[in-house]
TrEMBL record:
Coiled coil: none annotated. This is Inhibitor of cysteine peptidase. SUPFAM superfamilies: ICP-like. GO terms for molecular function: cysteine-type endopeptidase inhibitor activity. The keyword Chloroplast does not apply. Keywords: Membrane, Protease inhibitor, Thiol protease inhibitor, Transmembrane, Transmembrane helix. Pfam families: Inhibitor_I42. PANTHER family: AMOEBIASIN-1, INHIBITOR OF CYSTEINE PEPTIDASE. The chain crosses the membrane at residues 12-36. It comes from Methanohalophilus portucalensis FDF-1.
Length: 282
């Protein structure tokens, strides 16, 4: 028998408050749990980057640890991981046969006056073969045994395309990198259909490094053109350390594009242009 007296109402109020408190605790716990899953916990893991497409010339950080990316043969990319050789620790990196290390260098800390400050170990790779490729690295002192507590980095690559067959001696004699582009200028010719090219200027890091024109790539994703300008220099060459200025013009395939605004990204430097009309002859 239900009663509407004071005693019943008081008990029901407490019960409702208790249910609300429980619901609030559950919501808070769910939020905390979701944040905990998103946090990398100091390992550099970021689940949200899984199954991304790896474009030519991309640089990856430790946040890509444990990820799988889709990419193509012939592409260059780099991985940058924090390293502190002053402690004796260093990254020991291995790859499957379909990935070639074309450059391996250590970048010291920006402020070298700070004793013990970490720098970055940077590897540049070229994808030589298709199917599944793998990169694995472990951070440890070389003379110590593996305990399972070390920091690690792994990256899986699902690769499409034909295997790369390098020119005789080309990959043996040269080290490849990415051009340091300081400025780009987009040139739109007054013609119809419209022709567009991008002029990139910058500096090469020494007297032996040149633009690897044969491997310049241009890809369009939506309204963005991604242009990658690589470099090469002979291995073991004695090079002057003075910067060498460069200027190079790269044509863009704009025929058939609809009118609108388009972005051009050349090694991380961006600019844009506008097509006033659909760029096609009817």
């Amino acid at each position: 028998m239900y009663s509407h007296g004071d005693g019943y109402l008081k008990i029901n109020t407490y019960a409702g408050a208790g249910l609300l408190l429980i619901a609030f605790i559950v919501v808070v716990a769910a939020v905390v749990l979701s944040l905990g899953c998103a946090d990398d916990g100091g390992t550099g893991v970021n689940e949200s980057v899984d199954a991304h497409t790896l474009n030519n010339g991309t640089e990856l950080s430790g946040q890509w640890d444990g990820s799988t990316v889709n990419t193509s043969t012939g592409y260059y990319f780099s991985v940058r991981l924090e390293e502190n050789p002053s402690t004796g620790y260093q990254w020991n990196l291995t790859t499957t046969d379909g990935i070639k290390i074309v450059e391996d260098e250590f970048e010291p800390p920006e402020n070298e006056d700070i004793v013990g400050a970490p720098g970055f170990h940077v590897w540049t790779f070229r994808i030589m073969d298709n199917e599944t490729q793998q990169i694995d690295a472990i951070y440890k002192r070389p003379w110590e045994n593996v305990t399972g507590e070390e920091d690690t980095f792994s990256l899986a690559l699902e690769v499409e395309g034909e295997p790369v067959v390098p020119a005789d001696g080309d990959d043996v004699e040269y080290i490849y990198g990415t051009a340091n582009v300081d400025n780009i200028e987009i040139m739109v010719m007054e013609s119809f259909p419209v022709q567009v090219s991008v002029q990139a200027t910058g500096n090469l890091k020494d007297g032996c490094t040149v633009i690897d024109e044969a491997n310049i790539t241009t890809e369009r994703t939506g309204n963005t053109f991604n242009v990658h300008i690589p470099t090469k220099r002979p291995k073991d060459a004695m090079c002057t350390q003075a910067l060498e200025a460069f200027e190079i013009n790269v044509p863009l395939d704009v025929y058939g594009l609809e009118k609108g605004n388009y972005t051009v990204d050349v090694n991380g430097v961006q600019d844009s242009f506008e097509l006033q009309n659909d760029n096609v002859i009817e």
